[in-house]
């Protein structure tokens, strides 16, 4: 859950930078088709960039091979111990969970609102008088103003014969350019990024470009600019617009008039769009750390002033040796585990309890690994490795430098586990050691 929130913040930051760049340098140009394409690409680019860093190796001190998890299940060795103890709390509540619940609740509300608006249009159409035309339908219904939605043009039922053909042509351009898909796209973007104020300005910018395109399409059919502007002013009434589909929004009328009377932008100004490329490269690099070769690992440790000591801290916050319920080397009792030794120790605790790095090092792996569940592997100096299995969630990422005592994750029951606990291992040069000897 925490990772989702982090990704949302990353995507929002990238989108904000790119959108502000558009607003500062590109929105004034008369290249409406290019501006529409740029606006549609901004959310997509923002979504992709944070994940591009994973396509390039950022750091690898060594390749970690994850063996099959053959240790005795958590409760097999210690069933009698568990039966004598109070039941464990298997869930915890944190601020991150609260934020996640709030986020998805609002997302659901936005999609519900979207569904209600769409359903309302279909209801209007059912009770409307429909006049099929060439490539579209005139829908005479109980609406306050004219607007288009896919191949439907909604017109107030008392004005079906009064609307100037130029304004209907305007709506036909919206239909031909499939602007309704863009509107739905912007609404979906707002639903997922409702917390970003720039998302709402983004929707307005996209609708403005739609209006500029439609106005240009009408003017290219021979009507005079002054006559068309007069028609717009006469026929645009001050009504509360439909938040989803009504393009005729009084708030952008001044911008439309200014754009119609503006000289065409020079083709040389198209070079300004190339500004997006170095900005995107910079943003990609911001999510990609420098590549560090294997033989530079110890040098990195020293230059970052990481202390050199064996992993000696107890790995579960506020827990002690008395909370160890499965010890190193214990043999399995069930037939499927007969003869298999326990390669680490199991520490019981409440789900969500912080798990700590037991020494300074670098996160070599932080991912879900089958029966291991959510697994973190930290590489330390002098050939040491520590493994933390069955985590509920991560509080770190691969290739991150951590210090002794840092919270790297949270105790859980993922993978092959029958209850919340931490399976903890210590290795040196690939050989498993008894973790208790280091506490």
Report on the structure:
α2 (32-52) runs antiparallel to α7, α6 (179-192) packs antiparallel against α7 and α7 (197-219) packs across α9 (253-260). This protein has 439 residues and is of the alpha+beta class. The strands form 3 sheets. Strands 5, 6, 8, 9, 10, 12, 14 and 15 form an 8-stranded antiparallel β-sheet that branches. The chain has a 4-stranded mixed β-sheet with strand order 1-2-4-3, sandwiched between helices. It has a 3-stranded antiparallel β-sheet with strand order 7-13-11, with no helix packed on it. The protein has helices at 2-25, 32-52, 79-84, 95-126, 165-176, 179-192, 197-219, 225-235, 253-260, 276-286, 297-303; strands at 129-132, 137-141, 147-149, 152-156, 324-326, 345-348, 354-356, 361-368, 374-379, 384-391, 393-394, 401-402, 407-410, 421-428, 431-433. Residues 56-61, 71-92, 243-250, 290-307 and 332-339 have low confidence and may be disordered. β1 and β2 (137-141) form a beta hairpin. It has 11 helices and 15 strands. The protein is 38% helix and 15% strand.
């Amino acid at each position: 859950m925490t990772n989702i929130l982090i990704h949302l913040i990353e995507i929002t930051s990238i989108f904000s930078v790119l959108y502000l760049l558009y607003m500062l340098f590109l929105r004034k140009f008369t290249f409406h088709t290019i501006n529409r394409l740029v606006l549609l690409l901004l959310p997509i680019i923002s979504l992709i960039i944070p994940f591009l860093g994973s396509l390039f190796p950022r750091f690898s001190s060594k390749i970690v091979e994850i063996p099959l998890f053959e240790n005795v299940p958590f409760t097999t060795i210690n069933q009698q111990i568990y039966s004598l103890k109070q039941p464990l709390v298997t869930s915890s509540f944190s601020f991150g969970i609260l934020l996640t619940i709030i986020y998805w609740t609002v997302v659901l509300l936005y999609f519900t609102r979207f569904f209600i608006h769409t359903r309302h249009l279909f209801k209007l159409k059912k009770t409307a008088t429909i006049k099929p035309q060439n490539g579209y339908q005139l829908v005479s219904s109980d609406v306050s103003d004219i607007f288009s939605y896919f191949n439907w043009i909604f017109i107030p039922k008392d004005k079906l014969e009064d609307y100037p053909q130029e304004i209907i042509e305007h709506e036909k351009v919206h239909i031909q350019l499939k602007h309704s898909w863009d509107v739905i796209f912007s609404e979906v973007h707002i639903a997922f990024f409702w917390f970003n104020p720039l998302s709402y300005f983004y929707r307005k910018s996209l609708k403005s470009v739609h209006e500029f395109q439609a106005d240009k399409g009408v003017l290219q059919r021979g009507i005079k600019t002054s006559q068309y502007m007069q028609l717009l002013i006469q026929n645009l009434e001050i009504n509360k617009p439909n938040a989803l589909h009504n393009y005729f929004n009084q708030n952008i009328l001044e911008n439309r008039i200014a754009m119609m009377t503006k000289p065409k932008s020079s083709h040389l100004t198209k070079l300004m769009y190339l500004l997006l490329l170095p900005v995107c490269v910079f943003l990609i690099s911001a999510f990609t750390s420098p590549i560090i070769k294997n033989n530079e690992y110890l040098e990195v440790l020293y230059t970052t002033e990481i202390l050199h000591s064996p992993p000696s801290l107890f790995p579960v916050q506020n827990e002690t040796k008395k909370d160890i319920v499965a010890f190193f080397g214990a043999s399995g009792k069930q037939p499927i585990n007969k003869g298999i030794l326990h390669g680490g120790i199991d520490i019981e605790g409440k789900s969500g309890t912080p798990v700590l790095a037991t020494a300074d090092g670098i996160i070599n792996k932080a991912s879900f690994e089958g029966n291991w569940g959510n697994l973190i592997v930290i590489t330390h100096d002098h050939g040491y490795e520590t493994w933390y299995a069955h985590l509920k969630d991560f509080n770190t990422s691969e290739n991150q430098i951590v210090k002794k005592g840092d919270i790297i994750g949270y105790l859980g029951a993922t993978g092959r586990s029958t209850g919340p606990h931490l399976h903890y291992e210590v290795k040196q040069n690939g050989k498993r050691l008894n973790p208790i000897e280091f506490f």
